[in-house]
DNA sequence: CGCCCGAGAATCCTATAGGATCTATCCAAG
DNA sequence: CTTGGATAGATCCTATAGGATTCTCGGGCG
C-alpha cells in the first residue's frame, strides 16, 4: 500500500505533479531573478526538481501560453526577452480596453462589489504605507514590493470579476504575466505609490457614486496616468 | 544516416510531431463530429495516429487553452460541453469589445487596409453566393459552409490585424475556437448569409469614408444584429 | 590572425514500460 | 428487484531508454 513516506519526496509532493512543476517554474520566472534568454533545459529542471522530464515538458507547454518563455523546435525553451517599447504600448492599450469595458459592465456597482472594492483598496493602501516606510529608511524589501504588487493586482481584479464575464477574466489572466513583467521592468523602484493609491481611491468613489460613466472615466484616468508615469520613468530617472 | 523512408510514416510526418498532432485533433474538434462529453483517451488517440502518448499529451495541454476540451486529473480529457446561454451572451460581449476596439485602433483606414478589406469581403460574398445557390437546391454542403465560415472569420481578422496590437490578436485567437463552436451550435442552418454580407459591405463603406466613429458604429451594428439573429434562432426556427 | 570544419558532449524528442487510479461488470445480500 | 462490494480491465500518470539534432570546442587551412 505505501510506496514511500509522505512528505519526503525530494522537491515535490505526490499529487498533480504537472501542476506543481508549473507553479514552481512560474514563481521562479515571476521573481525576475533570471536573465532573458536563459536556457530552460528540460532535463536540467527535471533533475533540479527530482522528477522525470515528462511532467516538466507538459508544464512548459502550459507556460508557453503566458508568454514568459519562448520555444524553438529542437532547440528548447528560453526565458522570453524583455518587453520592447512597442510591446509595452500595446500592452497598455489592451489593458485599457479590458478594464474600462469591465468597469462599464460592472457599473452601477452593487453593495457587494463596493465592499470588495473598499476592502481591496484598504489592503493596497496599507501595503503602500509599508513600502513607503521602508523606502524612507532607504531599504527596498523585495517581499514588501511583491506584496504591494499583489494588492494592486487584486484591486483591479475586483472590477474584472464583478463584470461577470468569464472570457474577460480569461483574457486578463493571459495578460497577467506580461503585466507583472511590465511592473518589474518599467517600475523597478515603485516610485508612484502615493499617486496609485490616490487614484484607486478615486475609482472607489466613482463606483460609490452609483453612476456608470464616472467609474469608466476614473479607471481610464488611472491607467493613462500609470502609462504616463512609466513612460517618464523609461526616459530616465 | 537514413532511419526510415520519408513519406512512409503511418499517419504523421516526421517533423514537429507535437504540432501535427495538435492540428489533427483541433480540426477533428472543429469539424463538430464529436458529441460533447466524449472521452479523448490519450492511448487511443496515440494508437489512431500511430505515435506515442507523449506528444499527444503535450497537444492536449495545448488544446486545453482553447476551451474545446476539459481535463480532470486522473480521469482524462473530454470534449467540452456545449455553450450555455449565459456563456453565449458573455462570448458576444467579449467579441463586441475586441472588435469595436480594434476598429477604433485601425481607423482611419489606410489604403492597404481598404484593399485587404475589400478583397476579404469579395471572397466572403462569393462564398455566400455558393452557399445560397446550394441551399436553393435543397442541398447543404458541409465543405461549402466551412468555407463560408472561414471567409467570414477572415473578414473580421482583417480589422483585428490592422489594429496592430499583438495582444488583441492573441485574445481573438483564444476566443476563436469558441466563436467557431457558437456558429455551429447557434447558426446551424446559416440562415443569415444575405444580411451578413450586406452588413459587411456597410463596414467596408464605413472604413472607406475615412472616419473613425463610423466604422466602429458599423461593426457594432453588425455584431448586434448577429446576436439578435442567433437569439431569434435559439428561441425556435 | 581569422575562418571553417569535424568529433564529442549535451540536449531535445519520441518511444516503451510499469505503478497508481478510475471505471465497469458481476455476484451476493437484503 | 435493488443495492452494495469486489474483482478485472482499461486508462492515466510517471519514469526510463535510445535515436536525432544541436551546441561546443579544438585543430587545420587560407
UniProtKB/TrEMBL annotation, chains A, B:
Residues in coiled coil? none
Q: Which segments constitute the HTH gntR-type domain? A: 15-82
Q: This protein's superkingdom? A: Bacteria
The answer, when asked if Transcription regulation is one of the entry's keywords, is: yes
User: Mind telling me which Pfam families this protein's record contains?
Assistant: FCD, GntR
- Asked if the record carries the keyword Hydrolase, the reply is no
SMART domains, sorted: FCD, HTH_GNTR
Q: Sorted alphabetically, which keywords does the UniProt record give?
A: DNA-binding, Transcription, Transcription regulation
Protein name in UniProt: GntR family transcriptional regulator
Q: Which organism is it from?
A: Pseudonocardia spirodelae
Amino acid at each position: 500500500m505505501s510506496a514511500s513516506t509522505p512528505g519526503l519526496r525530494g522537491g515535490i509532493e505526490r499529487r498533480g505533479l504537472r501542476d506543481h512543476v508549473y507553479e514552481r517554474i512560474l514563481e521562479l520566472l515571476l521573481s525576475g531573478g533570471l536573465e532573458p534568454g536563459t536556457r530552460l533545459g528540460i532535463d536540467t529542471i527535471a533533475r533540479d526538481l527530482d522528477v522525470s522530464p515528462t511532467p516538466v515538458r507538459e508544464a512548459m507547454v502550459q507556460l508557453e501560453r503566458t508568454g514568459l518563455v519562448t520555444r524553438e523546435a529542437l532547440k528548447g525553451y528560453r526565458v522570453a526577452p524583455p518587453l520592447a517599447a512597442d510591446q509595452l504600448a500595446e500592452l497598455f492599450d489592451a489593458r485599457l480596453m479590458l478594464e474600462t469595458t469591465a468597469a462599464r459592465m460592472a457599473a452601477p456597482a452593487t453593495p457587494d462589489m463596493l465592499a470588495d472594492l473598499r476592502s481591496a483598496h484598504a489592503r493596497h493602501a496599507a501595503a503602500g504605507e509599508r513600502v513607503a516606510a521602508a523606502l524612507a529608511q532607504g531599504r527596498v524589501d523585495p517581499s514588501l514590493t511583491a506584496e504591494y504588487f499583489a494588492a494592486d493586482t487584486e484591486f483591479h481584479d475586483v472590477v474584472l470579476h464583478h463584470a461577470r464575464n468569464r472570457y474577460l477574466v480569461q483574457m486578463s489572466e493571459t495578460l497577467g504575466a506580461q503585466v507583472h513583467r511590465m511592473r518589474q521592468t518599467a517600475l523597478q523602484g515603485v516610485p508612484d505609490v502615493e499617486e496609485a493609491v490616490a487614484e484607486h481611491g478615486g475609482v472607489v468613489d466613482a463606483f460609490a457614486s452609483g453612476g456608470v460613466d464616472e467609474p469608466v472615466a476614473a479607471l481610464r484616468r488611472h491607467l493613462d496616468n500609470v502609462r504616463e508615469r512609466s513612460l517618464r520613468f523609461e526616459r530616465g530617472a
